[in-house]
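Format notes (please read before filing issues)

Several people have asked whether sequences and structure tokens are stored in separate files. They are not. Every record keeps both together, in the order shown below: the sequence lines, then the token lines. Line labels are part of the format and must not be stripped during preprocessing.
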Amino acid sequence: MIRVAKPAAASIETWFGVGGGADALVTPRSVEDLCAAIREHDPALGPVRVLGDGANLLVSDDGVDGLVIDTKELNSVEWIDTGVRAGAGAGLPKLVTEACRRGLGGLEGLGGVPASLGGAVRMNAGGAFGEIADSVRTVRVVNSLGDEHTLKPSELEFGYRRSNLSGLIVVEAELALPGADPQALRARLKEVMAHKKDAQPLAANSAGCVFKNPDVDGERVSAGRLIDKAGLKGERIGGASVSERHGNFVVVEDGATASHVLALIDRVRERVLAECGVGLEQELVVWKRGVPDE
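Then the structure lines:
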């Protein structure tokens, strides 16, 4: 029997640091425990949701129903000659740094991307310097019945900030990382980090980019630039505001609530549509009571 935390509201840790808790939360220490938790969960109580690093997540103020599975204990890391095999809870930033140190290329462009490996693979995390799909070899997943299997390259589909892993729980992934000069990799990582520190509010309470960069007439356009063009930098609702440094980041201060963030996101979307004629698609994941996870 898996022990599930059921206080008034089990805490859900996110980078925003706002929002409610979970009606039920479990932190499995093995894939077997995770599978058992899914099999024991009553779907009538709500959906199963997966918590990674909490970097791309906003939880509504009244929390969420169902079962939240925190993958932080599934953090095993095994370095192999051709790359790395790691659990979903392994931190991507540490994997990036260690790969560069070992002279394994392919992840240096993901420097500064806040994510667990599982979350990064599921959403195909990345940015201007690359995306994780370029390195994924196989993905071990668990389905809604609590059964596990491994997906081969021919079974994986990745696109811009998306994959075909929706509805599945990523528990492990193997990344193919070609050998390269460690010094050159570290230098490249340093360049990537310097660029992000200059352009993004990395020290603020935020959750990364709120919107996907839209496709306009066949060309990928910066959502941040559209938000800036609409005059929204510094726009504020309650304790949430659009970053002065990067328009596609929402930052929060003491006293902020999830409702403030959601209202600000709606305002930004409406203004960009009115001023620029472009509809923005949300990249930030929002958990709401009674609404299944995406």
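For reference, the curators noted about this record: Residues 1-8 have pLDDT under 50 and may be disordered. The radius of gyration is 19 Å.
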